[in-house]
């Protein structure tokens, strides 16, 4: 009868567990983004490219913990590094400095052109927050600029115009800040300038007007992980920020280790002043890091800091130091997982192979949608892409709104039922564990789903 009930409702256990979750967590979830209708699927196990839910259903996973799991689930070298680290260190954490912090920092400096020094955090959000505080301290200015449609984590100063209602967002040339949440103060709205991505003329006009107050511009060099900056745009932005004395922060939390080993800064050949990293860096454990120019990073050194210059007078011997702390920063087990993750990417050209396999999947998916007569393009870079249901050029948030989101939702729901895990409307991330067989099956399921939907 267990079998019969699963046949009639293949998600029965997920639904029942979700009903219990709703009693103890608002909406039954612990991050709003994890919710979708009719109810989220509760997972029980992961292996390679696959996720298995509490009802025993199997999925090819393209969410991969929002991109973090670049080697898929339970990668052997990563798991072994974690077990070995725990066994050898004889504790869960030291709470003191240790060698893996140094090793990881040396690795990041080797790979990322814009990184001379590193500090660790426990999430991507903490990294973007620290980058912005560092920029404000260094420049002694207190506004930041961000681009419409860009996500930098769930804090007040970044939760503006991430996914806004266009009706309330002003014009493309002069976007206005729209809060993404209740509980965001007018201070944050006033201190965050919104810019239009891939639109240099309007960006330049806004920046020139605000330059005296702007500490930094923060951006995702590939918006949402899939809409790349035009090369001309990002090179222009670097020149302009240098001229205007505004720091340039690359948020490479998604793109780090995914567009290339050295992130977008390596690909574009543009050195940001500060970089935020996360996701892949922790091999599936919570992590973040800020890296950047030595003279900027050194303002947080407790034995360094910066001479205080006030009202034109040099207050001899006085230092100003940027505060940065965190009980779990540089967690040894997390860094062991991260180092093993990076090492496995560097071996036998894995990064290139991963990007090639992603390209193959994109190409095959485009063929399926064309065969089925659905307007679609894949957009992305390296090992991340998205399925965008429009033939029009997509360069920014506003272009994206013109795609057929409602059809995409229906497709995603059908894919879920047939064994492909994508959080509805989310981008696709690939892993080194995804095989050609997975690709063939993914393409076949898409074709079946499209046929069914278009009846
Ligand atoms: N920045 C970007 C570009 C991200 O994609 C994310 C998370 O998705 C963050 C920052 C925040 O990272 P975390 O969720 O680890 O706080």
TrEMBL record:
TM regions (residue ranges): none
Cofactor: pyridoxal 5'-phosphate
Pfam families, per the entry: Aminotran_3
Molecular-function annotations in GO: pyridoxal phosphate binding; transaminase activity
SUPFAM superfamilies to which the protein is assigned, alphabetical: PLP-dependent transferases
Alphabetically ordered keywords of this record: Aminotransferase, Pyridoxal phosphate, Transferase
InterPro entries: Aminotrans_3, Aminotrans_3_PPA_site, PyrdxlP-dep_Trfase, PyrdxlP-dep_Trfase_major, PyrdxlP-dep_Trfase_small
NCBIfam families: PRK00062.1
Annotated protein name in UniProt: Aminotransferase class III-fold pyridoxal phosphate-dependent enzyme
Provenance organism: Salinibacillus xinjiangensis
């Amino acid at each position: 009868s267990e079998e019969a009930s699963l046949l009639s409702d293949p998600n029965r256990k997920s639904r029942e567990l979700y009903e219990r979750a709703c009693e103890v967590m608002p909406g039954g979830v612990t991050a709003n983004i994890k919710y979708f209708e009719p109810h989220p699927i509760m997972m029980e196990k992961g292996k390679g490219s696959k996720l298995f839910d509490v009802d025993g259903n199997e999925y090819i996973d393209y969410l991969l913990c929002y991109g973090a799991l670049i080697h898929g689930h339970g990668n052997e070298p990563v798991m072994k590094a974690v077990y070995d680290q725990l066994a050898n260190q004889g504790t869960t954490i030291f709470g003191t400095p240790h060698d893996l912090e140094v090793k990881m920092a040396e690795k990041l400096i080797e790979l990322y052109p814009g990184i001379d020094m590193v500090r660790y955090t426990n999430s991507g959000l903490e990294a973007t927050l620290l980058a912005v505080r560092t920029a404000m301290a260094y420049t002694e200015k207190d506004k930041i600029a961000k681009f419409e449609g860009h996500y930098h984590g769930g804090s007040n100063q970044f939760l503006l115009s991430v996914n806004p209602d266009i009706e309330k967002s002003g014009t493309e040339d002069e976007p206005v800040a729209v809060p993404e949440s209740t509980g965001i103060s007018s201070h944050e709205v006033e201190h965050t300038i919104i810019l239009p991505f891939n639109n240099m003329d309007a960006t330049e006009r806004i920046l020139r007007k605000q330059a005296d107050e702007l500490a930094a511009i923060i951006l995702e060099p590939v918006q949402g992980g899939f809409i790349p900056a035009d090369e001309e745009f990002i090179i222009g932005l670097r020149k302009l920020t240098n001229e205007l004395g505004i720091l340039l922060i690359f948020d490479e939390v998604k793109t780090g280790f995914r567009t290339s080993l050295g992130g977008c800064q390596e690909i574009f050949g543009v050195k940001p002043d500060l970089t935020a990293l996360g996701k892949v860096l922790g091999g599936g454990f919570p992590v973040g890091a800020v890296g950047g120019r030595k003279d900027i990073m050194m303002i947080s050194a407790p034995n360094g800091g910066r001479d205080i210059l006030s009202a034109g007078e040099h207050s001899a011997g006085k230092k100003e130091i940027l505060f940065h702390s965190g009980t779990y920063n540089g967690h040894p087990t997390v860094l062991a997982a991260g180092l093993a993750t990076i090492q496995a990417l560097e071996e036998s050209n894995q990064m290139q192979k991963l990007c090639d396999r992603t390209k193959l999947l994109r190409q095959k998916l485009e063929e399926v949608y064309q065969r089925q007569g659905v307007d679609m393009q894949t957009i992305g870079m390296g090992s991340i892409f998205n399925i965008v249901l429009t033939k029009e050029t997509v360069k920014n948030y506003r272009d994206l709104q013109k795609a057929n989101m409602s059809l995409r939702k229906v497709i995603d729901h059908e894919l879920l039922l047939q064994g492909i895990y994508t959080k509805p409307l989310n981008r696709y991330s690939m892993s080194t564990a995804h095989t050609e067989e997975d690709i063939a099956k993914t393409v076949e399921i898409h074709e079946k789903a499209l046929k069914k939907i278009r009846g």
